[in-house]
Specification:
mainly alpha; 2 domains; 12 helices; globular; DNA-binding
DNA sequence: GTCCAGGGCCTAC
DNA sequence: GTAGGCCATGGA
């Protein structure tokens, strides 16, 4: 049934072609910068990095910390994020000579664990990097995912609440179990959920008028109470 | 002026 | 182990 939801969203919104970024490395940087921050602020920070020729692993690790912090200031938490960017770049240089292409043959779970071992990279950021920068079959679970699904399946007791213990893994396991697909499918499904939560469904508790129609679709599918 | 946004870490209990 | 605080900017 999640595939049905995916199909309905795809027909309504088309292919969102997410995530913005000229290169896989830029996508990784965006994933770190967007932590608890709106994308418009991240765009400013990335623009600054480009202007100052800092958008490379070697540049970020060699430049003075305060210069990097200043460049990403618009994204907020700039001191923390500067340290996180440098840690990620140091890992990339040390492990893969700064070349994301060299991660190609690394099993996805190994790669995920490597990313999680870097300070400042948690579940969401790691999965965003895996899915959107490295084309790995991983479904990103973020604030939009929780929001969109809670609106669609509002009364479903099996959906964990965002922030609750183990909610990330529970939600991810649930969705990936129901929606078995490749990187392209997970990429698009998550992007469509973001659009659903962002553009059409600002008004909680349910997206009345939304083309997908949370309750109308949910009820009409005859699967009330289950995700 | 207040709230919120595409998290994650640290610390006190 | 769990809850709460902290990091910080910019738009609505």
């Amino acid at each position: 049934m999640l595939m049905e939801l995916h199909t309905k969203l795809f027909l309504e919104f088309g292919d969102p072609q997410w995530w913005p970024g000229d290169t896989p490395f830029e996508v990784c940087i965006g994933a770190i910068l967007t932590q608890n921050t709106s994308w418009s602020n991240v765009e400013r920070a990335i623009s600054n990095l480009k202007e100052r020729s800092l958008l490379s692993p070697s540049a970020m690790t060699s430049v003075q910390a305060n210069v990097l912090s200043e460049a990403i200031r618009p994204s907020g938490y700039y001191n923390r994020k500067a340290a996180r960017l440098r840690a990620f770049c140091a890992y990339l240089l040390e492990r893969y000579e700064g070349d994301l292409e060299m991660t190609r043959d690394v099993p996805v779970l190994d790669l995920r664990n490597e990313l999680l071992a870097i300070g400042g990279i948690g579940n969401e950021t790691a999965d965003s990097i895996l899915c959107y920068a490295l084309d790995r079959p991983v479904l990103v679970i973020d604030a939009y995912t929780f929001r969109a699904l809670s609106r669609i399946f509002g009364s479903c007791p099996e959906l964990p609440e965002r922030g609750s213990r183990g909610s990330y893994g529970t939600m991810q396991g649930l969705l990936m179990g129901l929606l078995k697909g490749d990187a392209c499918l997970y990429n698009r499904f998550h992007a469509l959920l973001v659009l659903l939560g962002k553009e059409r469904c600002r008004t909680a508790p349910c997206c009345i008028g939304c083309p997908v129609g949370p309750m109308c679709w949910y009820a009409s599918s005859g699967t009330e109470g289950r995700a």
